[in-house]
């Protein structure tokens, strides 16, 4: 189990890196948006590329940041029942949720997104808008982001199993490993 927990920690570090990348993308998108507004209103210059890079960055923020949000346990959870459960039952709900919902959805998304992104790359797809950008890099964010998400789910699943076995303790309030 220790080897799996080490793997989970490595996945955490990798997704922390991509969480930082997502945060940088937020700042860059804000700067581009401000620069676009300034150039449009002050200089009467504009380009569709400024708008397109912003939505591509938004895709990066969401898809690269989501795994780190899962790691921090800051994702949205409807816990009408979950909140009232004891720690062990919460672990079982989490394990079941990962197996029945989380992993199947990640794998379905990967199965659908990979051919879509690959075809876009092979065709050298670019935006139909004048001055538009290449579209395939943004499309590759989908399978890449879901791969990162599935890996983070694996790390969380490993931790839940370890906690059920008594190998680690999780903070009951936040479901994070006790330091």
TrEMBL record:
Residues 31-161 form the Tripartite ATP-independent periplasmic transporters DctQ component domain. It is a multi-pass membrane protein. The keyword Membrane applies. Pfam families: DctQ. Keywords: Cell inner membrane, Cell membrane, Membrane, Transmembrane, Transmembrane helix, Transport. InterPro entries: DctQ, TRAP_DctQ. It is found in: Cell inner membrane. It comes from the Bacteria. Part of the tripartite ATP-independent periplasmic (TRAP) transport system. Belongs to the TRAP transporter small permease family. This is TRAP transporter small permease protein. It comes from Paragemmobacter amnigenus.
């Amino acid at each position: 189990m220790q080897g799996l927990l080490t793997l989970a920690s490595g996945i955490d570090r990798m997704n922390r890196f991509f969480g930082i990348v997502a945060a940088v993308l937020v700042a860059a998108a804000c700067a581009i948006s401000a620069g676009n507004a300034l150039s449009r209103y002050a200089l009467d210059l504009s380009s569709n590329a400024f708008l397109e890079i912003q939505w591509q960055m938004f895709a990066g923020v969401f898809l690269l940041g989501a795994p780190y949000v899962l790691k921090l346990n800051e994702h949205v959870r409807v816990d009408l029942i979950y909140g009232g459960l004891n720690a062990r039952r919460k672990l079982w709900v989490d394990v079941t949720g990962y197996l029945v919902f989380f992993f199947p959805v990640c794998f379905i998304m990967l199965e659908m997104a990979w051919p879509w992104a690959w075809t876009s790359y092979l065709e050298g797809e670019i935006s139909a808008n004048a001055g538009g950008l290449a579209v395939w890099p943004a499309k590759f964010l989908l399978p890449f982001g879901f791969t990162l998400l599935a890996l983070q789910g694996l790390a969380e699943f490993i931790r839940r199993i370890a906690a059920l076995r008594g190998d680690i303790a999780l903070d009951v309030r936040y479901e994070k490993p006790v330091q």
